[in-house]
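Sample entry (391 residues):
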Amino acid sequence: MKDRPKITRIEVHQFEYEIRDVGLEPVLSLPVYEPGSVISLVAHAIRIFTDIGITGEYVGGRPTEYAAMPMIARRIIGRNALDREGIYNDLKLTLRQVARMGMSQVDIALWDLAGKFYGAPIYELLGGSRISLPCYASTYVGDNQPGGLSSPEAYADFAEQCLEMGYPAYKIHPWVEAPIERHLATIHAVGKRVGGKMDLMLDPFCAIKTFGDALKLGWACDEEKFFWWEDPFRDGGISAFAHRKLRQLVKTPLLQLEHVRGLEPHVDFILAEGTDFVRGDPDTDGGVTGVMKIAHAAEGFGLDIELHAPTGPVRRHLMAAIHNSNYYEMALVHPKAPLTPSPPVYKDDYRDGLDAIDENGCVQAPQGPGLGVEYDWDFITKHSKGVAVYD
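Predicted structure, serialized as tokens:
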């Protein structure tokens, strides 16, 4: 029997990377197509070292997720790195008053470590075998640039382009601030152009100001037979009662829970009949361990779980192991702008992007041990803004 790896040190690397032809819209700071502009984004990479030389790694999560790392390090250094369930439950308790920040990224790195220890990809450790994963094209928010997503017809043109590329589904992220009539026209333009040929979704990212306008969007989705819609209005996606009312008045299935964190609140929301599809995110819902708990809970209610972007290998592994999931979210994509916000940190041939799908509209689950990717530590080090070490 192999020696059990003991956690000896944790490193958190902060680094910057640039995205060209992209700006940030002023209301929600979402990426928007802006020719000639360059934005700098901050990302983080975590490494968990052990006494037997195996290291777990992960790049992902918002900067706020790493604020609680000193608390996490005190709790887990010296522990068996394979005790993911025990660490998950202990960190739930330790981090209960700080929104459980950081436990997701630690959990993902520990799954990477376990895969390297056993010589198997994460999806295989989870019992999965679905290698080929259908994708949907998930757009940038709307812009006002020539050749961009600047009109209902432009969204329809891009949907048709994605269909011709092989995508089986397409999701609209509309403008952050626009008259409701513009949103309705976009739903109908896309529906008329590609409806019946690919699944269609709508995500207004909680930007619609009133329940009444949200209803109008839902009814337009009904007319065009959308597959789902999500997070329509400014409750922030967290009111089970409000979304139950929407479900009663709109036929199109509702996908919620992007802004609800963790297993128990997900189950409460399902029991309150606030959603049809369940959203899960390994960066905010407790990592691989947390998302698998949510996926199994959703399965118990007969519901599907859909994994939230950004793109990346951990989401592919999860989808490969979850049978009640329909699509991998290829986000964010645009006819002229690069994939965002995922940083360019892969040294091997792993790739996401508009043209990363195969002829069947799918991507593949990585086959190497753990996350199955090789991170480009030369790039991370070159663009470093600092390293925090806990031992």
